[in-house]
Write a structure and sequence with these properties.
Number of helices: 12
Low-confidence stretches: 384-388
Radius of gyration: 20 Å
Strand order of the largest sheet: 1-2
Number of domains: 2
Number of strands: 2
Structural class: mainly alpha
Order of helices and strands: HHHHHHHHHHHEEH
Mean pLDDT: 92
Length: 388
């Protein structure tokens, strides 16, 4: 049967389009808002303490939109079915926005109602993915529901922990751990694959090591380290396991021939973002909790999601996979934000505190992304445009 032609607005023609756009716009706004909250110039009236609101919205707000965009783009490739388009995507975006507003205190809803609204989005995403995979009989990819379900469970746990204890430190670590592991899992597939394809086109030379027993051992080690760290972050076991995971994933990264990708900034970004994972593990192992969490949160998660959104948008809108100076600058600014936030948050840098400068750089990086990529997301594919 021939596939039906979608006739609605381009922004709702594929899952990555609306979710990458709202994720980028949200990233521009939410960190400066947090800075205003932290400085006492703004209050968030939701059910969370200010620090918890910040952690929740970065992990379960920003990341959930990127994850939805990625999955709703990948699943049609896995199943061979038409992507979700039009009204279903619009409803999902509305659910995501409703969650952000409820968590911010709009409507002054009770905590249980905020939890219900916020949890609806990841549950809907998981359900829709399950339906698509089952309809396409692509059973081997049902395993993607495991980390997606863990992510949703961590979100619900965040709300419950905050209601019971007034803070949600354990659930915040759990959410961060799940997202970091997704980077190790998905990044561990796409980074060497894209690198291999690019290097193979350029001729002879060493290629990335294929996925094998070493990678499986590195993933298992990271999963164990992240699990122990979530439960007991200051314990000797967590530090030892994190140190081991840092070594395993630094070696894993070196096996992917990233040093040979200097001529491709778009590809190099993926290697640099992944490098923040072993760096974050090492910092946590050394007892530098703030540096470690921000190397993972800003550097690894922020960097990898930004790079993947760039690449996926180019590839799926008919554009060459070339970052250009503008997008390369955006990624470089984000790397600077990660390093300053991790290592110099209270330093005086050009008359600004490191915290303020890092927040500004983060917002600038995503503003560049939205300004450059936003029109691509909202317009028809380049290859399908009708000449004037």
């Amino acid at each position: 049967m021939a596939r039906q032609t979608y006739a609605g607005p381009a922004i709702l023609s594929y899952g990555f389009r609306p979710f990458f756009l709202v994720a980028g716009a949200f990233a521009v706004l939410v960190v400066p808002l947090w800075l205003a909250v932290w400085a006492g110039r703004l209050q968030v009236a939701g059910p969370f303490a200010p620090v918890d609101w910040h952690a929740h919205e970065m992990i379960f707000g920003y990341v959930s939109a990127v994850l939805a965009g990625f999955l709703f783009t990948a699943v049609p490739n896995w199943t061979g079915r038409m992507p979700r388009q039009g009204a279903p995507l619009a409803v999902l975006v509305a659910l995501w926005i409703a969650g952000r507003l409820a968590v911010a205190g709009v409507g002054a809803l009770p905590a249980w109602a905020v939890m219900a609204i916020d949890a609806a989005f990841p549950l809907a995403v998981a359900a829709m993915i399950a339906v698509e995979i089952a309809a396409g009989r692509n059973w081997r990819n049902l395993k993607v529901l495991i980390p997606v379900s863990l992510f949703g469970a961590a979100n619900i746990g965040f709300h419950l922990e905050a209601m019971a204890r007034g803070s949600a430190e354990v659930s915040a670590r759990a959410g961060l751990a799940v997202v970091v592991f997704l980077i190790l899992l998905i990044g561990g597939r796409i980074v060497p694959s894209f690198t291999r394809n690019w290097l193979a086109k350029r001729g002879s030379g060493a290629l990335p090591a294929p996925f094998g027993k070493y990678d499986a051992a590195a993933l298992a080690g990271a999963a164990l380290a992240l699990g122990v760290w979530t439960a007991a972050p200051d314990g000797l076991a967590a530090r030892a396991l994190l140190a081991l995971a840092a070594i395993l994933h630094a070696v894993r990264l070196m096996r992917w021939q990233g040093a040979r990708c200097l001529a491709s900034p778009l590809l190099l970004m993926l290697h640099v973002a992944y490098a923040f994972v072993p760096a974050g593990f090492a910092a946590l192992a050394a007892g530098a909790a703030t540096a470690g969490t921000h190397l993972l949160g800003v550097g690894a998660i922020g960097g990898m999601t930004l790079a993947v959104m760039m690449r996926a948008t180019m590839g799926h809108t008919g554009r060459a996979l070339v970052a250009g100076g503008t997008l390369a600058t955006a990624f470089g600014v984000l790397v600077a934000a990660a390093l300053i936030r991790s290592f110099a948050p209270y330093a005086d840098l050009a008359g600004l505190s490191g915290l303020t400068l890092a927040a500004g750089l983060w917002a600038i990086a995503f503003a560049i992304f939205v300004g450059r990529v936003g029109p691509w997301l909202a317009a028809p594919d380049a290859a399908r445009r009708t000449p004037n």
